[in-house]
Amino acid sequence: MKTLSTHTLLLALGGQSLLALASEQDTAKGFVEDSQWSLLNRSLYDRRDYQHGSLSNGARNAFKPRSERSDLAEEWGYGLMADFTSGYTIGTLGVGLDAHVYSGWQLDSGGGRAGKARVLGVDNDGHPKDEFSRGGAVAKLRWSSTELRYGEQRVKTPVFGSSDSRLLPETATGWLLTSRELPATTLYGGHFNESTDRNASSHDQGFVVNYSNGRQGNSFDLVGVRNTAVKGLSASLFNAVYDDTWRQHYLGALYTLPLVPGQELIFDLNLYRTQDTGQALSGRIDNTTWSLLSTYKIGSHSVGLGYQKVDGDTPYDYVTRGAIYLSNAVALSDFNAPEEASWLARYDLNLTGYGIPGLSFSALYVRGSGIDGSHMDPNGGYKWLGYGQGGKHWERDLQARYVVQSGVAKNLAFSLRHAVHRGNTAQAELDANQIRLAVEYPLGGKF
Prior knowledge:
Helices cover 3% and strands 49% of the residues. With 447 residues, it is mainly β. The protein has one domain (36-446): Porin, CATH 2.40.160.
C-alpha cells in the first residue's frame, strides 16, 4: 500500500464528487462568516505513587540518575488551548485555514518527580519546564463533500489518533482526506511525517511509538472506511503502514440493540492485525489483538463485561497515543502484553435520572494473565520491556465527573480518578496508585 495507495485513493474520492446530488460545500457561507474560535482552560494534577521502589529502580523513568529518583511521580500544570477554525470560501472549491496555539505552565513538580506522567515538558536534565508551547496551522480544501487538510492537526482514527488525555493534546503533521460523498459512508486517506507528543514543544522528534525502541520509520499512511447504513450499527475497516516497520489492519463494529424503552444492549468489537514489513525496524511482528465489550444499559445504569486477547510474541503496539480502541486499555495499563488474555468488568452511573444532571460515576476492574515474552525477537524493539513467562496483573479505576449545566460557569467540568495497578515481575507495568484531578473551562463562539 504505502504512499502510492493513498495517492490513488485521493483520485478515486475526488471522482466521486461527480455523483453527488447535494454537498457540504453547497452550504458554505464564507471564510469569515463561518469561522469559530475556542479557548480551553485546563488544570491537571497527576500523582502516581509507585510501590516497592519500582520507579526509583526502573530504567524507564531515566530522566534522573537512579540515586536521585523518587518513587513519587507528581506533576501539576495549567494548560491553555486556543483554536481558530475558519469557514470555507463560497464556490465549487472551498478554501479555509485552521490554526492553534497550545501552552502549558508548571504549577508544581520537580526533577525527581517529573517525567513519568508526561503532563509537563521536561528539559534535557530531567527538570520540568516552567512553560512549554507549540502552535501550528492547517490549510484545507473542500470540493463537494470531500475535504483535504494539510498541516499540523489533530487526527481521530483507530490506527492513528491524537490523544487528549494529559494537559495538552497530541498533534500530527501531514495530510488527511475525508470524503462523505456516499450515503452513510465516510472514506479516509492520510499520509503523515511525524506526530508530536502531548508534553512536547518541538515538531521534529519523529513519531510517538508507545512500546518499541527500534529505529523510527519515516512516514505513516492510512486508508479506511466507516459505514452506518445498518440501523444501530457503525462498522469500520482501516489499513495502515508504518514505514519499514509494520503493516496493520483494523476491523471495528459498534452495535446498539434496543430492548424495551429505557433498555439496550451495546456490543463493541475491535480487532487489530499487525505484521512487520520492509526493513522490520522493530523486529519480527506477527500479532493479532482483539477485544469485545458487551454493555447492558437500563435507565441511568450501565453494566459492561469485556474480554481482550493478544495472539503474538510482541505486545500490541501503535503510533500516536490515541490509536488504541481496545476495551481493556485503561488508565495505567493497556493489557496488551504478548499472549495476554484479560477480562474487564465495569459499572457506569449517570445521575441525570436522579435529578442531578451533569454528575456521573464509573468503576472498572481488569485482570490479565498468560503473558509470555519468551519467544520475542531478541534483536527487535520490544526486548527491553523485560516480559517473562506467567505474567499477570490487575487494575482498578474509580472516577467521578461533574459538568456545570447552567449559569456563568456553564460547561465547567471537574473529574477525579483514583487508579491502582498491581502485577508480578513477568509483566512490564509498574505497581502504582494514581490520583488524577482535572478542571476544564471551555470558551468559544463565532466571529
